């Protein structure tokens, strides 16, 4: 990988966006590498942690790519939207660690995470309209994350805000004051995630995402089917037996 650093440990894949010279701006190469990594994840990976090198998460799209794209600009933009769809849909728990610039595409990537942990001084924003362009691919994900009213305000003003405000908006779940506290919070959250059965987590994530826009009646029917399958599955049996015998189930790390 030219734009990513990868480290796997104990069922967790740590992905570091590694273009610090550009505040980890999202190039087409980085988009493609992220998509490749996600497509190749095996069943041993239960959580993915995404962070950025050099004190920044991601400053948005790589302007050099936009300038040189020519008639491929539409396809390039849509490729990033596909990445966001794939990050959101992965059955693994996705955790983002947000420091420095969290702008444009970086903001969008934060919006498709399951759990977001931010430094209190991280700088969030949707700067696209101040550059004469649109937050084209990230807009639907931003709306679903923080609601239409706040998304309109932020996108139509290009306003910047910090991690504390991001937590108030519901964009992030935890805000920490220093790198050590960030690392400790990541470890705490991972410890909680790894107490949960991986297949149950995957189905639960799919159910929660479906609840946003699927009709209630068929969704509840589907949920009942998944519940019955889970109870009879190896995970369900193991979880029940562990509870009866007062021990931790086998998936606990």
Automatic annotation (TrEMBL):
CDD domains: crotonase-like
Signal peptide: none
Ranges that cross the membrane: none
Pfam family, one: ECH_1
GO biological process: isoprenoid catabolic process
InterPro entries, alphabetized: ClpP/crotonase-like_dom_sf, Enoyl-CoA_hydra/iso, Enoyl-CoA_hydra_C, Enoyl-CoA_Hydratase/Isomerase
Highest taxon above the source species: Bacteria
GO terms for MF: catalytic activity
UniProt cross-references to PANTHER family, sorted A to Z: ENOYL-COA HYDRATASE, POLYKETIDE BIOSYNTHESIS ENOYL-COA HYDRATASE PKSH-RELATED
Family: Belongs to the enoyl-CoA hydratase/isomerase family.
Protein name (record): Isohexenylglutaconyl-CoA hydratase
